[in-house]
Amino acid sequence: MRPEKEGETILLPDRQVLVLGNGFDLQCGLKSSFADFMQTRIARVKKIEDILSSSEDLPLITVRRPDGYELHGNNLSYFLWGEGLTVWDFILFEDKQQRAWYDVEECIKDWVDYSSPSASGTPHLRQICDAFEPPDKDHWPYLQGPIKADQCVLAYATDFYSWDGQSGSLLDILLDQLNYFEAWFATYIKDQIRFNDRYPFNVNTLIDYLANDEMPERVLDMAHNEGRYSASPESTDILDFNYTEPVNRRWKNSPTCLNVHGLARADDIIFGIDGTNIDPEQECYAEIVKFTKTYRIMALNSIPHPSLVRPYLSSDPGNETSTIKFFGHSLAEADYSYFQAIFDEVSLYESNTRLIFYYNERRPDGKNAQAEMFEKVNHLITTYGQTLDNKDHGRNLLHKLLLEGRLVIKQVPTDSHEVHIGNN
Predict the structure, then answer these.
(1) Residue 165 Ramachandran class (φ > 0 left, ψ -120 to 50 alpha, else beta)
(2) Do 261 and 405 belong together in one domain?
(3) Are residues 203 and 219 in the same domain?
(4) Do 296 and 105 contact (CB within 8 A), yes or no?
(5) Which residues contact 64 (CB under 8 A, 6 or more apart)?
(6) Residue 88 belongs to domain spanning
(7) What predicted TM-score, i.e. pTM, was given to this entire model?
(8) What phi and psi, each to the nearest 5 degrees, are found at residue 90?
(9) Residues 245 and 393 occupy one common structural domain
């Protein structure tokens, strides 16, 4: 709208950001959970265990090391390597026995950060380095079952990487193994998409619901027959923590989407740790920092991307991003740095930006999704408030958002209350 008087503020159209987590893909019928993926990895281990149980010795096998050198023998490590199993398969599976769920980021941190003691009180890497002896024909760290994570790391390092016993080079090996592990996960996600015919339709439908919910006018239409987006797709940006594509980038006028941690299709996904509390003075910091999300995203995103958030300007109020919607994200502390950056950009306390958090009341685990979301949102906003320079503002931020009607927690807006709009 053109101002009537000179100097009057021109208000730009409402603009929103959708923040998507893995719950989005699960809602659309994709078996993208890490637990589902790990079941396929455990099946590979079981295959070798069955061979061991039926014979005293494994048959001879030839495998190729990362440097191209061929190894021939019947070592257990050769068979694990030949099945594409990495040390992280065993590290994560063993870690789950302690937590009762898979926490990939925290597990990686526990293993690579020297300030994180293991159950024994000594960091994992120090234990492995202390156990190292230069291998020779009379002493070689042969791997035997049942397979322990630390023994697997030691065997892989000596068998396939000619490890020198130093902690820095062991961290390099763990990073290389993590790259292999990520590649397998990317392949798994691509297979799930390929064999789920309904997934693209489900994704488009759910994006349509989310984008248009609580907006003053319809902002997104998906013209399937014409292969384009219509209405005002430029009003919607997507910050996606998944490794999939929630918009069809081949279509005209597609909303801007940033996959924070990479795309399975491009084989460039990452698992990283939060580097906020990594001590730069600790041993092997130069190698440890390579596991952080910040470091790995810098290496991943070599091409600049447009800003998804329109900032708040005190000289031009009302033109900041009007709405931020969250769906399917666990709101785990590991990603708080992203949310803090977004809230800072829109100056959450001063602006009129609304936050909408969606939950799915029909969860398969039977938990009270609404109550759980209340708790997570309370923790997120309270934690963010502690980062504000004005501590009084920080303490009453949640109360202010509620009073001003800028905080909404609601059931995901679908006709059926559950977008499993269709599975295979």
Answers:
(1) left
(2) yes
(3) yes
(4) no
(5) 70, 71
(6) 35-191
(7) 0.89
(8) -80, -35
(9) yes
